[in-house]
Amino acid sequence: MQRYPHWIDGKPHPPTGDAWLDVHSPANGEVIAQVAAGTAIDVDAAMQAAQRAFPAWSSLPNSQRAQWLERLADALEDRLEEVAQAESRDGGKPITLARDVEIPRAIANLRFFAHAATQFASESHHGEAGLNFTLRQPLGVVATISPWNLPLYLFTWKIAPALAAGNCVVAKPSEVTPHSATLLAEIAAGIGFPPGVFNLVHGAGPAVGEALVTHAQTKAISFTGSTTVGKRIATLAAPLLKKVSLELGGKNPSLVFADSDWRDNLDTIVRSAFQNSGQICLCGSRLLVERSIHDEFRDAFVERVKSLRVGDPADPATQMGPLVSQAHFDKVMRALAAARDEGARVLCGGDAIDRPGWYVAPTVLEGLGPDTTTNREEIFGPVVTLQAFDNDDHALDLANASDYGLVATLWDRDLSRALRFARELRTGMVWINTWLMRDLRTPFGGSNQSGLGREGGAEAMRFFTEPRNIGIAT
Ligand code: NAD
C-alpha cells in the first residue's frame, strides 16, 4: 500500500505516532493509499524547519527566487502525466480534465508568480512634506490550507505567491486528495529546492489545520474551503491578530437572457454547471432564465445534460466522474432528498447511479423558489436549479437572493444591461458571455459568506508581504 508522508526540510517525514489515514478511490470506494495523520508535533517540526530556512530564502535576490519557481514548474511539467493520473485517481476527476486543464494550470501558477517575483513593485508618494516610499517585505513563515476539489491547482495558487514574495511555507493539502501535493514536494526535493522553504504537513483539518493556524510562528493563513471551516479559522486567528485570506463557498447564479446566443453557448453553460461533477466553487448552480425562452432553453439544456458521459475517470471519453468521497456523496444525497421535500420537480438525474463508487447522476430541478434551502445552501455537486425571471429587476433580485457572493455569469447581448448587472450583482466576480475566464493578474475572490480578501496577481503579493512606509524630508 502506497503511503504519503509529510515532507519537512526537504525530506519525507513519517507522522509522529505512526498514525495514517486511508485514502479512497471515488470510482469504486476502495482504499488506494494511506496518508500521514499529522499532529501539532509534526506542524511544529515543519514550522521550525521553515523558520530556519527563512533568512536565506528571504534575502535571495528576487530573480533567484523566480528561477527556483521556474525550475519547479519545469520539473512538474516533466511529470505532468503522472501527476494528472494521481489527481484523477484520488479525486475521481476525469483524466482529460486533470491532464488538459488542471495540472497545466498548476504549472502556470508557478510560472506566473515566478514572473511576479521580479515585477512586483511597491508604492511611493511624493509631495506634501517630502517623499514617502513603501517597502514590502516577506512576512516570515505562512500557512496554506487547501481543499480537495482542485487539489494541485489551488495548492500552487497559494504557495507560489507566498514563495515568490520571500516567505517560507507550511502547506496542508486536503487529506481526501493528498497525492499530487506529495508528488510536488518530492519533485521539489529532487531539483534541490532549498530545504525548509516549502514544507508539507498532511492530516485531518482539526488536528493539523488548527495547529497551523494557532502556531506562534505562523504569520498569515491563506485558506480555501468551506464557509464553516473558514469561520472557524477566522475565530481562531482573530484573537492572535493573524492575517487571513479566506476563499469560501458559493451559490452562483447564471443568468440567461432571451437575446443571448445561448444555443451557441449551450455546451459552456452545461460545463459551467457540471464540470468536475459541480465540485468547483465557480460552478453556476442557480440557472435564471428569461421567461420568454424558459421552456425552450430548459428542454435543450436538459437534453444536453442527459447526454453527458458519466463514467470511469480513467477513461478519456468520460466527461463526468463520481463525487469525491462517501461523506460528500451522503451530503449531496441529503440535499436531493431535501429538494424533493421542498417540492422540486426532477427534470433529469435526481439519484445515485447504480454502480460501485460515489456517482450521482447530473441533476436538473425546477419548481423551487429563491427562499428554499435548495436555492440557498451550497450543494457542491452535479445539481442545478432552474428559475424563470420576468424582467431585469426580477432577474437581479433572484441573482442577489443569496448569502454568498462569489461569482455571477451573464449570457446577454445587451452590453449596457450586462454592465448595469455587473455593477449591481453582489459578487466578487462577474463573467459576461464566458465562464471561468482566467487571467492570473485579476483579483479573485468573493464577498459576504464567500470569503474575505482576494487572491491573484498583485493582491496575492500584497497579502504575503508587510508594508513598511518610510518618509524622508526633502
Ligand atoms: P473544507 O473546508 O472541509 O476543507 C478545506 C481544508 O481545510 C482541508 O484541507 C481540510 O482538511 C481543512 N480543514 C478542515 N477543518 C479544519 C479546521 N477546523 N481548521 C483548519 N483546517 C481545517 O472544504 P472542502 O470540503 O475540502 O472543499 C469544498 C469547499 O471549498 C466548498 O465549500 C467550496 O465552495 C470551497 N471552495 C472555495 C473556493 C474559492 O476559491 N472560493 C475554491 C474551491 C473550493
Keywords:
alpha/beta; 22% strand; globular; six-stranded mixed sheet; 2 domains; Aldehyde Dehydrogenase, Chain A, domain 1; seven-stranded mixed sheet; 474 residues; Aldehyde Dehydrogenase, Chain A, domain 2; binds nicotinamide-adenine-dinucleotide
β-strand percent reads 15-25%
Shape: globular
For the record, give the distance between the C-alpha atoms at the N and C termini, rounded to a whole number.
68 Å
How many helices? The count is 15
How many domains would you count in the coordinates?
2
Would you give an account of this structure?
This protein is α/β, with parallel strands linked by helices and 474 residues long. It has 2 domains: 2-248 and 448-472, 3-Layer(aba) Sandwich (Aldehyde Dehydrogenase, Chain A, domain 1); 252-432, Aldehyde Dehydrogenase, Chain A, domain 2 (3-Layer(aba) Sandwich). It contains 15 helices and 21 strands. The chain has a 7-stranded mixed β-sheet, with helices on both faces. Strands 10-9-8-11-12-20 form a 6-stranded mixed β-sheet, with helices on both faces. A 3-stranded mixed β-sheet has the order 1-5-4, with no helix packed on it. Helix 4 (95-119) packs parallel to helix 5. The longest helix has 25 residues, at 95-119. The protein is globular, with a radius of gyration of 23 Å. The relative contact order is 0.14. The mean pLDDT is 98. Nicotinamide-adenine-dinucleotide binds at residues 145-149, 154, 172, 174-175, 205-206, 209-210, 213, 224-226, 229, 232-233, 247-250, 281, 378, 380, 406, 446, 450-451.
